[in-house]
Amino acid sequence: MIRIRKTKDTSFGLDMAPMINVVFLLLIFFMLTSTAMKHGQKVDLPESQSAEKIKQDTVQVKVYPDGGIEVNGQANDLAGLPAVFAQLAVDKKEPVLEIQADRKASFKICGDVIRLANEAGIREFVFATDQPQAGAKVHTPL
């Protein structure tokens, strides 16, 4: 009689299917969140519930829907703003940047204006808003 030895299989297999599922779920999650972030460049600027006057030296910056920019009534572009802001930071004691952006203006341009002013030493920023019309429903935060 021939004896056949039973060999124990000591190797074990790792099931890769759950790991692949997790990788695909993460891939889908990151794809969806990255495309949603691309649409966050434009914003509809809010209306104010109360108006406050600014007491310090203000620098009025107007941003138009076509991308045009005015600083204290003089037309400018993004390339010329660093020199203008540097001069204003020297001339005024504590300048405050008052941004009067059109409702349809790109918020990216407003962000660039703030960044350039900050690099020039202007540290305070205010967004000018419209007063709500009489009888208009005003949203109040919770």
From TrEMBL:
Membrane topology reported for the UniProt record: Single-pass membrane protein; Single-pass type II membrane protein
Record GO biological process: protein transport
Molecular-function GO terms, alphabetical: transmembrane transporter activity
Compartment(s) of residence: Cell membrane
Record's GO cellular component terms: plasma membrane
Keyword Protein transport tagged: yes
Keywords recorded for this protein, A-Z: Cell membrane, Membrane, Protein transport, Transmembrane, Transmembrane helix, Transport
Record keyword Transit peptide present: no
Transmembrane parts of this sequence: 12-32
A Pfam family annotated for this UniProt entry: ExbD
Family per similarity comment: Belongs to the ExbD/TolR family.
Listed PANTHER family: EXBD MEMBRANE COMPONENT OF PMF-DRIVEN MACROMOLECULE IMPORT SYSTEM
Name of the protein this chain belongs to: Putative Biopolymer transport protein ExbD/TolR
